[in-house]
């Protein structure tokens, strides 16, 4: 067997493996979409009927009308948007301090910061709840938003590594022109870090949008519920209506899919490219 034939067989094997893996990941989504378009009967036929006849688009209308979908969507959008703003600003600012500023104990504090990633969230859950309760923040959005304005160890690490790829000559030239560190961070490093910021934004959006535990712990008023809590309430009331349940689930997960596929180019650049453009 020639070297060219071996290379061709290797590529065929790799592509077949990737296609099989992609099918395994896509199949649940296809089943979700197919079930959301079916009627009240024939949901669990064997073999399954992937293309329903007729198509019941009314399931999506029933899902929206079955619980305060628009109110919960607005609540979720507000919490997610504020969390993304806080996460991007705080994490990038702290990362700049670790990447570019010289101050005593910088490296030691960075190691301590990374060590906090080893701490499970369950360990701090009760102390945080007691703290927020004493502050009077329970049944408000503050416990879900404010922590993101104090940075995240993983996000700070991500931004620091990206900032360190930006040539020092840029910041040194800006200092010669009389720019402050805050100006350099905001007007030079932030515009050059769009891929990393997009990656951080996608991570934060996915985390907050799909968060069920946080709203469950801190929110008591049904008018303040998020979509995740709304889905849980919907499941408790209409758990046997799988077609409508799948329609509601698809509507809730749709923004995450749209965001990822819209910004996947920046997401990849955040991992593979440096901060130098042009």
Question: Can you describe this structure in just a few lines?
Answer:
The chain crosses the membrane at residues 12-33, 77-98, 110-132, 138-158, 242-263. The chain has 278 residues and is an all-alpha fold.
Describe this protein's structure.
This protein is mostly helical and 278 residues long. The protein contains 14 helices and no strands. Helix 3 (69-100) packs across helix 10 (194-209), helix 10 (194-209) crosses helix 14 and helix 12 runs antiparallel to helix 13 (242-262). The longest helix is centred in the N-terminal third of the chain and has 34 residues, at 3-36. The protein is globular and about 70 Å long. The protein starts with a helix and ends in a 6-residue tail after the last helix.
What's the overall geometry? globular
Structural class of the helix and strand makeup? mainly alpha
Number of helices: 14
Q: What is the count of β-strands?
A: 0
The biggest sheet amounts to: none
Please state the average pLDDT score: 86
Q: What ranges have pLDDT less than 50 throughout 5 or more consecutive residues? A: 274-278
Helical fraction: over 70%
Task: Give the terminus-to-terminus CA distance.
Answer: 45 Å
Strand content: under 5%
Order of helices and strands: HHHHHHHHHHHHHH
Keywords: Cell membrane, Membrane, Transmembrane, Transmembrane helix, Transport
Subcellular location: Cell membrane
Organism: Cohnella hongkongensis
Main location: membrane
